[in-house]
Amino acid sequence: MPTLNLFTNVPVDAVVASDILKDATKVVAKIIGKPESYVMILLNGGVPIAFAGTEEPSAYGELISIGGLSPSVNGKLSSAIAEILETKLSLDSSRFYIKFYDVEVNQQPEFSSILFELFLDS
Question: Can 2 be counted among the known catalytic residues?
């Protein structure tokens, strides 16, 4: 399941959040080549963030996927997500950073086990 976690210091109202969630879901599914029903997007607005020494509008993202990522795909995803943030939040793409995690299929049971243990501990 591809999961995109987005954090921005820009306050995000419910309408804009809904638009970003819909647009990002479509983009991630299309570029990675997985059904939209497998994609999860989390959006956290109004998070204190300093980037390049200022608190001007900026964002950070993490995309985790079991396969489907590569340098070429990552570049397309980064550009497409930056464009969504620029359009919806007036956030300059030079103030957006995204980290990609490609989880191999054989790592999945271990990763699930760790998440399960974290869930039980909370």
Answer: yes
